[in-house]
Known about the structure:
Elements: E1 2-6, E2 9-11, E3 32-34, H1 36-52, E4 55-61, H2 67-76, E5 80-84, H3 94-108, E6 113-117, H4 128-136, E7 139-149, E8 154-161, E9 164-171, E10 174-178, H5 190-195, E11 201-204, H6 246-259
Parallel strand pairs: 1-4, 1-6, 4-5, 5-11, 6-10, 7-10
Antiparallel strand pairs: 2-3, 7-8, 8-9
Helix pairs in contact: 3-4
Amino acid sequence: MKFLVCIKQVVDTSKMEVDPETGRLKRNNANSIMNPVDLNALEAALSLRDRIGGTVTVITMGPPQAEAVLRDAVAMGADDIYLVTDRAFGGADTLATSYTLAAAISKIGMPDLIFCGIESIDSNTAQIGPEIAATLGIADVSGASFISFEKEGGLIVTRQNGSSAEVVELKLPAVVTVLPELNKPRYSSIKGILGKGDAELHIITAADLDIDTARIGIKGSPTQVKRVRPVVPPQKENLRIEEKDPQESVDILIEALRKISVI
């Protein structure tokens, strides 16, 4: 079995900084981590490989420093790592990103099963997995909370749908996006940590792919984030009404509620 996991390097929300001049998130290795639920996706692939055999390939699209999360995946047990990186990919939204990743996956060779975290903590769109599946023309299930592999080549997936659950059967190849409830990611082994720097990193650029350049990067992105800024909690103000006239008191209260958009 060939398993592939899509991961993303994201800004640690506890260390998030915004460039005051550009209004964009500051992205560097000092404040970046692997998207948390991608760890669950990686664990799903590793667990299946350990049980039924096969290989686990991990891929990410991002700047050169995204190599760090790929090497973290090696420390956990991944077999091969691919970095999809090129200035031409910069500024991509989910549509352009999924198109590029699908092209890279096709170049590597179609796996039997693709895992993704359901969403990233920096954009929370939950679109990449389904869009990759649509681009590749294969089945997908989102929000997996339980997975059972059948020897006949099918996959039984329990997906959460609000407060209810739905059980579906998938024929491979397919894409599955997972929830944190699916499993508990393993710790990196000492051997993995010591050897992650020696793992071969495969780099894929725009020139390596058979793609429409109008569908990548900013040019291929119908949606764009104009500005990112931290949320500032509203300051609390105490209002004391001491008017003797009841109508004046009501007017003051109504005006105060309008200022904080209650009415």
